[in-house]
Design goal:
Layout (H helix, E strand, L loop, with lengths): L1 H19 L15 H6 L3 H32 L6 H13 L2 H12 L5 H7 L16 H26 L3 H10 L3 H12 L1 H16 L3 H6 L11 H11 L3 H34 L1
Subcellular location: Cell membrane
Keywords: Cell membrane, Membrane, Transmembrane, Transmembrane helix, Transport
InterPro entries: ABC_transporter_permease, MetI-like, MetI-like_sf
Length: about 280
């Protein structure tokens, strides 16, 4: 089964790469134009903007999820009352589809129906929270919505790591008078490296796949202010009937992912081997 899946992925990659080297429009063609599609792709202002947006989104999304997920894990690890219910509440958003998340946050952030509208109806006439309709801030609304959804997953991963730390470590830290925050930063976080690396990889995959939430919340707008590569590819594949250009964009996105994730996974496996040895 695994070999079949791997074979399907490899064949799909090879077919997409071949199409990206052709002049295909509506249907794939057998001609060869070299790197012409890639040259057109990187002269496309919309594609360059989508890459820029994705880089900003990735930085904010991954950092916020890791920090918030870690804080939630630390909070729950204090043996708080109702721990099971809290874990469920924090993890539940991850069970929702990105489309549902996008629609919910679109309503929440809508200037007329959401937070701004409610605040003004309560008498705060000067209150403004219209990020979702402003080009310079719309991307941050996508970050807010997706962090809300994904931080619970990070919490679950890091909480399992925290529960695996020997209780004797905390006793020793108390005896030595080491502040708790220092223990977390200097000792606990390095010990959570396997969980953190797993969380990073999962979050990075979510970044690259970002599509549903953007379409549900903003349709890539206002204008192209929240355009992302996955939406660019889908628009050119189906909306603009340019299979060759969409294939070239897909290959570029895949190679970018491999260039970042492969060394990270290799370093993680080497670290695990050393710790195991």
């Amino acid at each position: 089964m695994a070999l079949t899946a791997l074979g399907a992925y490899v064949l799909t990659f090879l077919w997409t790469a071949r199409v990206s080297l052709s002049s295909a429009r509506i249907f794939p063609t057998g001609d060869f134009v070299g790197l012409g599609q890639y040259e057109r792709l990187f002269r496309n202002a919309r594609w360059l903007l989508s890459l820029q947006n994705l880089a900003v989104y990735a930085l904010l999304f991954i950092a916020a999820c890791l920090v918030l997920g870690f804080l939630l894990a630390v909070f729950i690890d204090q043996q708080v009352a109702g721990e099971g219910a809290l874990r469920t509440v924090f993890l539940y958003p991850y069970a929702m589809s990105f489309v549902a998340t996008g629609l919910v946050w679109q309503w929440i952030l809508n200037p007329e129906l959401g937070i701004q509208g409610v605040a003004r109806r309560l008498g705060f006439g000067g209150f403004t929270f219209d990020w979702i309709v402003r080009q310079e801030t719309v991307l941050y609304t996508v970050v807010i919505a997706t962090v809300w959804q994904a931080s619970g997953l990070v919490m679950a991963l890091l909480l399992s790591g925290l529960r695996g730390i020997d209780a004797e470590l905390w006793k020793a830290a108390r005896i030595d008078g080491i502040p708790k925050w220092r223990v977390y930063l200097s000792i606990v976080l390095p010990m959570l490296w396997p969980s953190l690396s797993t969380a990073f990889i999962l979050l990075f995959v979510m970044v690259v796949k970002l599509f549903d939430a953007v379409v549900a919340m903003t349709q890539g707008g206002p204008g192209t202010a929240s355009e992302v590569p996955a939406k660019f590819i889908m628009d050119y594949l189906f909306g603009r009937a340019n299979v060759g250009l969409a294939s070239a964009a897909s290959i570029v996105l895949l190679l970018t992912v491999l260039a970042i994730v492969a060394p990270f996974c290799y370093a993680r496996s080497r670290a695990l081997q050393r710790s195991g040895g």
